[in-house]
């Protein structure tokens, strides 16, 4: 883990010189709406290898870029078998007529160099084929060989942003609970991976039950709940050195369901004293705590708004599990969920405009979204058991856990677009649950 993280620090980006920024008039742009769209066809020929040592990197990086873009459901790659033109050098003129003939609206070209010190350099350009011009400036990214997938994700992020105008999310990581063993004796440990399931690494062993990991806003720390002491207790883990410590609570008290504040200085969580569960906040530097709710009900699953001014949480104070919003310092809470069924695990979108949640109704579980005032509820999924949504850094994609029914049932991670399109499974080497999506690296 430490070696990998050190390697990734080497990654940097520069605009290529003397490439020219070309004037844009009606640039190629895919408009993201809530309706069904036709994926934009694009071509990404294998990047040019500038030496024999770079050949495999050139092929692999091109394929990861294509997979990132097509995985959004917004783009459709044109098979390389259909390509008429061949790209033999990074600086060669683009034969736009050949790319128009196969209806490629966007073209991504690039090259890869690998030197004897293990450094990999990727250059790329994005072209608007029908306008016959470059979109933005060419750029290059540099890393050591172990960071080649991040190089590919960074190129894909740039292409995604130029074609959609949206903040990207490919160069990001997800922390989750890796699950192995039978359903009645499941072993669970914390793991971290790239957003697409690649490069899985474990952060804890399976000696004790762990639940609900949550990334800090800068991605350097993870909160999670562990039963290592026999009671649920919140731990803070530093990702870089895999060192963790317990957030201290009183004897016999149970703490769980933690989340960081947007500035990373506070933790909001649930604390059970006797038979009562309320929401508290703790200053990580001083350890000072503040009680935010005080009712006989079960109050849990708190999540800050992006500006840190409000907290959404779940409570059964009305007689059934529903969602409420209160000021970040505590105070009067407003119920925002009024549909049929029970609501839980709310999480505020990084855009601040929606709240994702788990809903149980009529024997089915759903992942859904609603406005922060509870209006415009929309269910995105339905299954035997879907739960625990987490937002991509750009607030456009949601990842969650899905468990299958029966004694042999297993848990896996899925993602879905906020519009409900593009539902797909995220590959993991074993069962997986409780994802938490980190920030762009």
Write up what this structure looks like.
There is one protein chain. By secondary structure, this protein is mainly beta. It has 2 domains: 40-164, TolB, N-terminal domain (Rossmann fold, 3-Layer(aba) Sandwich), CATH 3.40.50.10070; 173-440, Neuraminidase (6 Propeller), CATH 2.120.10.30. The protein is built from 4 helices and 32 strands. The chain has helices at residues 2-8, 55-71, 96-101, 148-164; strands at residues 12-15, 40-43, 48-49, 75-77, 106-114, 119-128, 133-134, 139-144, 172-180, 187-194, 201-202, 210-215, 221-226, 233-238, 243-246, 254-260, 266-273, 276-283, 289-291, 299-304, 310-315, 322-327, 334-335, 342-348, 354-361, 364-371, 378-379, 386-391, 397-403, 411-417, 424-426, 431-440. Strands 1, 2, 3, 4, 5, 6, 7 and 8 form an 8-stranded mixed beta sheet that branches. A 4-stranded antiparallel beta sheet has the order 11-10-9-32, with no helix packed on it. The two termini are 16 Å apart. Mean pLDDT is 92; it is low at 1-10 and 17-25. It holds the Pfam family TolB_N. Part of the Tol-Pal system, which plays a role in outer membrane invagination during cell division and is important for maintaining outer membrane integrity. Keywords: Cell cycle, Cell division, Periplasm, Signal.
Structure at a glance:
It comes from Antarctobacter heliothermus. The protein has 441 residues and is mainly beta.
